[in-house]
Amino acid sequence: VQLAESGGGLVQPGGSLTLSCRFSGVALAHYNIAWFRQAPGNRREGVSCINVIEGSKYYGDSVKGRFTSSKDNNENVVYLQMNNLKPEDTAVYHCATDEFCTGAYISWGQGTQVTVSS
Hints:
Elements: E1 2-6, E2 9-11, E3 17-24, E4 33-38, E5 45-51, E6 56-59, E7 67-72, E8 77-82, E9 91-98, E10 105-108, E11 112-116
Parallel strand pairs: 2-11
Antiparallel strand pairs: 1-3, 3-8, 4-5, 4-9, 5-6, 7-8, 9-10, 9-11
């Protein structure tokens, strides 16, 4: 499986960005898909996960109500809509496959940088 993130950039606090993750080599419909982020010197932080078996979506406490994850099985693309961005959201964002939505990531892309700053 290959994953490629895009859509990062520099945005002011309170702004919005939409990240995309394109999958190749597998059918997206069969995989739980997660987003996680990592800032320099920090541990990985789970942002979201779509559980295809349960039909549920999970979000980290720090992004609940501001971020929304969705997927397009036909296009094999996963999105992360990020609203009301804060400086503490600054990190490299990765999409990943996650067998049980527990943070045990199996495959992930190289990531896309999101910087929130005025």
